[in-house]
Amino acid sequence: MIQDINLQVYEMRKNGYTFAETANALSCKMNWRMTNMSKHQYVYALYHGDNFIDIGTIQELATKQKIKPESMSFYRSKEYEIRQPNGYKLVRVDD
């Protein structure tokens, strides 16, 4: 399921869909900051196990989940994946 959503997001961005249109198609809420991001902020998809939760920058996702951005970044690490194989996963969405 993770690969399917990532492929869907990748294809939508490749075909010129905006972040807002992509999020709308995935039933996610967008905020002003995500639609006006700088080049150095990456967009990530957040999953719990195989279930898609949300899409956004690390800061945005951390705010929505009410955790520190450092904790959110840790979800990307191999160490976290080893500790919690069915836990949260943070996957970068490439343009």
Query: Regarding quaternary structure, how should these chains be classified?
Result: single chain
Reported for the largest beta sheet, the result is: 3 strands, antiparallel
Report, as a whole number of angstroms, the end-to-end distance: 20 Å
H/E element order:
HHHEEHHHE
Strand content: 15-25%
Helical residues, percent: 40-55%
Task: Write a brief structural summary.
With 95 residues, this protein is of the alpha+beta class. The protein is built from 6 helices and 3 strands, in the order H-H-H-E-E-H-H-H-E.
Can you walk through the features of this model?
This protein has 95 residues and is α+β, with helices and mostly antiparallel strands. Helix content is 46%, strand content 19%. It contains six helices and three strands, in the order αααββαααβ. The protein has helices spanning 2-14, 19-25, 32-35, 58-65, 69-74, 78-83, and strands spanning 43-48, 51-56, 88-93. A three-stranded antiparallel β-sheet has the order 2-1-3, sandwiched between helices. Strand 1 and strand 2 (51-56) form a beta hairpin. It is globular and about 35 Å long. The two termini are 20 Å apart. Mean pLDDT is 80; it is low at 32-39.
